[in-house]
Every structure is written in structure tokens, then in C-alpha cells.
Amino acid sequence: MTVDDTIAVLSILRSAYPGFYAKMSKKEAESVINLWSELFAEDDAGIVKLGLKELICCHTGYPPDIAELKSKINEIIGAANGGNTDIDQWNRLVKAVESAAYPWEAKAAYEALPSAVKSWVGSPSALHALGQEDSSVFSTVTRSNFLRTIPQVRKREEYRRSLPPEVKAYIAKLTAPKEAEQLADENAERNKVLDRLDGVVGALV
Has this prediction a pTM greater than 0.85? Predict the structure, then answer.
């Protein structure tokens, strides 16, 4: 949302709870606008308004807070992605696997998945690999593993969506060097193996 979007959203709150905001000073209002602009910067204004109006219908006496609205937004997004239940998510994955029988089909099928399921799968190639599993293994072992772990993946996705942009950038900055360092270590280990193989080949020749 932009600052103008935030003002529009807060105007809905003020209209629904006039008594709560009646004595708010200009400075306090500016602080509220700045805070909401920051915390909802990456959220779609239309979804925020929809979530807010749904919450207003259920609240009496006091306006819904940021945490309640964030939760409602995640609920709406989850429903739009094919349902909130774990079985709904599994059924979406099954259809995606069926649509990714060939590697060149995997990307489109992967991109159509809900975000949490995409995170669980990992990549289009991993989606294609699931389709190569024995059907009995996929329908039992893989299914069991999915249903056991997808709630944690979904919660992690919801938590990431709730973070302010600057926090996400800070986390990315912290993790990027670690990933680069890990890659460098893997390359160094690979080079050691290659060097040993060259030595063995040289001795045989």
C-alpha cells in the first residue's frame, strides 16, 4: 500500500469507530499513518480493505489491530490460493505433478502453485522429480511427509509476509554471505576431489 492507500484504509476505521479516534491529535494520526504504511507496504490495498471490512463486521467497541488484520489478509490469500486446509494444498500439488510429466511443463505447473506449496516443493525440477516417484510411494510416504510439514511451511510464509520490507532486506543481507560462503566451501571440496582424481589418474598413466 502507498501512503494514500493507508490514509484511505484508516479513514474506514475512523468511520466505523468515530469515538475511538475523536481525540487523536494530528501528531498521533501521523504516527499511526507512518506505522501502518510501513507494516502494510507490500500488501495489496484492495485485500487490506476487504480484510478490514470483514473484521469490522465481527468487532464491537474497539477497532481491529494490525495483528488481527494481518491474520485476516493471510486467510484471504490462502483461500484465494485454493483453500486453507492441508488436504486442499495436497490436491493442488497432485494436479501440478500430473501437469509436470515432462521437464518443459514443470515451470508453468510450479508457478501456478500456492506460495506455501511452492516453498515446500522448492523448484520446477523438484516438481518434475515428484512425478517420477513410484505412485505408491508418492501417495503414501510423500503425502504423509507433505501433510506433516506443510503447516510449518505455511506459517513461515505468513510470517515472512508480515515482516516490514526493511526487515526482509536486512535478513536477506545476513543470509546472503552465508549462502555464498557455503557455495565457496562446496566448490573448494569439489576441487579437492578433482585434484585427488587427477593424482590417481596420473599415477596410473
Answer: no
